[in-house]
Predict the 3D structure of the following.
Amino acid sequence: MTQPPAMKNDEPLYRLLREGQIDEFNRQREAGIDGDLTHCDFRGIDLRGINADKIDFSGSYFRQADLRGVDFTHSNLEGASIHAAKISGVYFPSMLSADEITMSLLYGTRMR
């Protein structure tokens, strides 16, 4: 069994999400601040309201995260897992098939 990604405690945008500061995260992104959100552990975090446009979440772990209403249309989710996440109203990238999303949701497989 593979271990979830390590926490990136030194990444300011990641810390904001871990602390539930979605509005501040969105403000900083709108101000042009970018960060490395690849291979992050978002397990159990409420990410509703996040501006995920053009964020690279590749390799990230979203087990039991609340993703309801998040628009991942232009995000990179390659290698990410959404096992048991709340995904009502989520927009996924068009290249991800419904079967692939379902497999990740139910069994934790990594999306391609």
